[in-house]
Specification:
- The chain is an alpha+beta fold.
- It has one domain: Alpha-Beta Plaits, CATH 3.30.70.920.
- It has three helices and four strands.
- Strands 2-3-1-4 form a four-stranded antiparallel sheet.
């Protein structure tokens, strides 16, 4: 499974409509509106293959009205709270 985060700069008048449209795109798991200098929306992408990621980002997302720009970050590894606790566990005190 490939996971990616797409930071999306949007036309301000289009943010809400764009968020709803993004949520309907196959491969987009979640969409968040954010307060940031770099993005107005963040889309979480979950697909099976890197080729699928390219399809979602460059064809489906890029085709939506109201997008000014995007920046995609591909995840290498995920860390859950459980993993972080195990990593820092020094054993019984």
């Amino acid at each position: 499974m490939v996971h990616a985060f797409v930071l999306i700069e949007a036309e301000l008048a289009q943010v809400a409509d764009l968020a709803e449209a993004l949520a309907e795109v196959d491969g987009v798991a979640e969409v968040y509106s954010v307060a940031s200098d770099d993005a107005d929306l963040v889309a979480i992408i979950r697909v099976r293959r890197h080729e699928d990621l390219a399809e979602v980002v460059t064809r489906r997302i890029a085709a939506l009205e109201g997008i000014v720009g995007t920046s995609t970050m591909v995840a290498f590894k995920s860390y859950s709270r459980h993993d972080l606790e195990a990593m820092w566990d020094v054993g019984p005190a």
